[in-house]
Amino acid sequence: MLKTAVVILNWNGLNFLKQFLGIVIRYSSGKDSEIFIIDNNSTDGSCEWIINNFPEISVIKLDKNHGFAGGYNIGLQNIKAKYFLLLNSDIQVTEGWMNPLINFMDTNPDVASCQPKILSYINKNYFEYAGAAGGYIDKFGYPCCRGRILTYTEKDTGQYDSYTDIFWSSGAAMLIRSDAWINAGDLIMIFLHTWKR
Fold this sequence. Notes:
Blueprint: E1 2-10, H1 14-28, E2 33-39, H2 46-53, E3 58-61, H3 67-75, E4 81-87, H4 98-107, E5 113-114, E6 135-137, E7 143-145, E8 148-149, E9 152-153, E10 164-166, E11 173-177, H5 178-184, E12 192-194
Parallel strand pairs: 1-2, 1-4, 2-3
Antiparallel strand pairs: 4-11, 5-11, 6-7, 8-9, 10-12
């Protein structure tokens, strides 16, 4: 069985794929990992471009746009791996980015999922709104993150360079055990952990 499937959900994201997919391939391919694209019935030539430029990537074409959760839930049924590494198509990864995530999960079998710190592409010293350094739910049911409260994002000064329990990890960049995903079904609201960057 494949150890890690890096899975990107795409819908008419050709421009993002052209900008970021080559970098993902450079820093995510290996003997224990493979990259998959789940395509939500794109009409912008995304699938053709991937097949023509990166034939080594497996493309799972869906019959229509099933949205974010639906696209992943359907597409991941076709992938057999120990870990699913969900990654937005507009994320720029860095060299070695997967290793700490996988090492953490390998040594913590009780953890269902983890995520890296996610920094803004536009302002690289600040956290990204989508997930920042791991998510929480406050007592009123509102989601918040380490590094982001409402619309305010913090500057990354190393204040979250630590492992800690979190309530949710961001689908923008999340490593999850495939059996946890499958067993949870549509309910992925489980206690998760974040990773030191």
